[in-house]
Amino acid sequence: MINTLPINIDDLLHRRTVESERIEYKASWNPETVLHTLCAFANDYPGHRQPGYLIIGVDDHGRLNGTKVSDQLLQNLGALRSDGNILPLPALSVSRFDFESGQVAVVEVRPSDLPPVRYRGQVWLRVG
Question: How confident is the model at residue 18 (pLDDT cuts 50, 70, 90)?
Answer without folding.
Answer: low
